[in-house]
Design a protein that fits this description.
10 helices, Double Stranded RNA Binding Domain, two-stranded antiparallel sheet, alpha+beta
């Protein structure tokens, strides 16, 4: 079995030395790629392209199952695998599950393995090397990212970028229910949860609210417009394209999910999970 190699500068781990070399040259080299439209800086040309697509060009990648939109293709892929196909990475020590392997690795390292990175200038300890590096730069090296428009200083470039967007560019995040404005998206999200139970988009034809604007389109088509999706093989009709797709895969393509403890078969991973929970008393399977 090939041993894993960890980057000496951060938490990145790989089995291939070539991958480590590419990672170091990209993430930790002094050469930087700068955005021509804002202050964003990165070591990767690919990251700069993702930044331009999502921030400046506002490109969206839509999930063809539920209509959710994502600014990056990788986020859409993670969403589909974790939400619609139930793919999870399980912790070998506890019931923790994550849709991303990097989050699982961080969880195991910080919670179970107990690996700590100690600051050599004070008694602070961190479970991630990246957190230690950030601490040393901000606290001991006094590295600050200064705003060129006011006296604001930040220890992280991301914080400075948020400051510029909210304070100097005047960008506001508006509540879709009560029209209250917020300087930060996180504040708007917190308000939505606390004041409106997280449901911020109202259907113009009824009083139903939805967490995401895209869900209104599905709701209107199925409830108010009577839209139907018809199966070409058997004329079965559905109000949502995702239900038609599940029907076709299960009924006509004969794709099923088998229980590894008995002969039960399910057409959806969620049904198989429910079966295991109720019949075999296996939780979080």
């Amino acid at each position: 079995m090939m041993n894993k190699i960890q980057c000496p500068e951060c938490d990145y781990v790989t089995k291939k030395r070539d991958n480590l070399k590419r990672h170091i040259s990209g993430r930790h080299s002094r050469s930087k790629e700068k955005c021509t439209k804002c202050q964003y800086v990165t070591s990767y040309i690919s990251d700069l392209k993702k930044h331009n697509d999502s921030v400046h060009d506002r490109k969206k990648h839509e999930c063809n199952i539920c209509g959710s939109n994502f600014s990056q293709w990788g986020n859409l892929r993670t969403h589909i695998m974790s939400i619609h196909y139930g793919k999870k990475f399980n912790c070998q020590y506890c019931d923790y599950r994550s849709s991303q392997k990097v989050n699982l690795r961080r969880h195991e390292q910080s919670i179970h393995i107990g690996k700590k990175f100690n600051c050599d200038a004070c008694e602070a300890k961190f479970s991630l090397k990246s957190s230690l590096r950030q601490h040393k730069l901000g606290v001991h090296a006094k590295v600050k990212h200064k705003c060129d428009k006011c006296n604001y200083k930040a220890t992280q470039k991301g914080s400075l970028r948020i400051h510029n967007i909210s304070v100097h560019e005047g960008k506001k995040y508006t509540c879709k229910v009560c029209n209250l404005d917020f300087n930060h998206k996180s504040s708007q999200r917190k308000h939505m949860v606390e004041a409106h139970q997280g449901l911020g988009y109202k259907c113009p034809d009824c009083d139903k609210h939805f967490r995401k604007k895209e869900y209104i389109k599905v709701h209107k088509r199925s409830v108010h417009e009577g839209g139907k999706y018809t199966c070409d093989d058997c004329d079965a009709q559905f109000t949502q394209s995702s239900n038609l797709r599940r029907h076709f895969v299960a009924i006509h393509m004969k794709v099923t999910f088998k229980c590894n403890l008995c002969n039960y078969h399910a057409t959806q991973t969620s049904s198989l999970k429910t079966h295991k929970n109720t019949v075999h008393k296996i939780i979080n399977s």
